[in-house]
Amino acid sequence: MVVSIKDAELRRIIQIMKERGESLTSYREGFLKRRITNRLRKNRVSDAEEYIRLLRRSSTEVKALKEELSINVTEFFRDPPVWAAILPVMCKLLEKKNSIQIWSAGTASGEEAYSLAITAVKALKRIEGGFNPAALRRFSILGTDISQNDLREAENGIYPEIRIRNLSMSDRRYFFIEKEPGWYQIRDEIKRRVIFRRDDLSRSRATKKMDLILCRNVMIYLSREMIEEIWKNIRNLTTSGAYVVVGRSETMIPQEREYFDVIDPLNRIYRRT
Ligand SMILES: C[S@@+](CC[C@H](N)C(=O)[O-])C[C@H]1O[C@@H](n2cnc3c(N)ncnc32)[C@H](O)[C@@H]1O
């Protein structure tokens, strides 16, 4: 049976979550209702009233609902054409600066952050005409997400084969160790260039200026106010010449047009003016 969540029920759920210290105001309503319905199904609860009672008495359910809201579908080099366009961007940055700072905001289980590290190695090889391990110090990557569970996976850096399906065989051998059949661990030298930290984009604590920010497939689930907040934050964390990449079904909001040039409209790459 498909249960639909009424507006009044949604408001009560938002209120209960708020009392438990979890703000849901940053999500779109339709998205919230769909995710809450998933929790009803998983708990085999057939009406919203019963779910509200469950939420009131169970802190485990409060956590589970919060996790349910953090959609975390991802993989290495998700949307390969975008990554083909990120490589020359990375080369430009590394040609201009001795060391660059990169942020994967909403990194989920780390695939995006590690893809950035792999791309940085490729960019270094291209501009230096070979690879010197000392050059790894020329980039640092910060991966952040709201989901602690995802970040634990990111820190482990071990992935099933399906998540690295976009990598060639030679890249798999170069950047990973096959731990056991079908499971790949990112190599330590690459892993050391990436730091993971919990950060909620609605009240982000990031302060360091960034040369490249990826915030992909995060904003599609969020409310208008939250998207505006994130863009403001991105603007504050970038200076002229820095690049920003969002998801292929996301776009820059009109208020930001004066601060960013559109470099690649298809792949959603922008540069700070
Ligand atoms: C679909 S994944 C995208 C992962 C990766 N960026 C990609 O494009 O493959 C969306 C991620 O955004 C995170 N997220 C959602 N709301 C967030 C918030 N307020 N602050 C930080 N991360 C958030 C989720 O936990 C989830 O891991």
Quick summary:
By secondary structure, this protein is α/β, with parallel strands linked by helices. The protein has helices at 7-19, 29-42, 48-57, 59-69, 80-96, 111-128, 148-156, 169-175, 188-191, 224-236; strands at 100-105, 139-145, 158-160, 176-180, 183-186, 194-198, 210-215, 238-246, 260-264, 269-272. It contains ten helices and ten strands.
Tell me about this structure.
Helix 1 packs parallel to helix 3 (48-57), helix 2 crosses helix 4 and helix 3 (48-57) packs across helix 4 (59-69). The protein has 10 helices and 10 strands. The protein has helices spanning 7-19, 29-42, 48-57, 59-69, 80-96, 111-128, 148-156, 169-175, 188-191, 224-236, and strands spanning 100-105, 139-145, 158-160, 176-180, 183-186, 194-198, 210-215, 238-246, 260-264, 269-272. The model has no long low-confidence stretch (mean pLDDT 94). Strand 7 (210-215), helix 10 (224-236) and strand 8 form a beta-alpha-beta unit. The strands form 2 sheets. The chain has a 7-stranded mixed β-sheet. It is globular, with a radius of gyration of 20 Å. The chain has 273 residues and is of the alpha/beta class. It has 2 domains: 7-69, no CATH class; 80-272, 3-Layer(aba) Sandwich (Rossmann fold), CATH 3.40.50.150. Helices cover 42% and strands 20% of the residues. Bound molecules: S-adenosylmethionine.
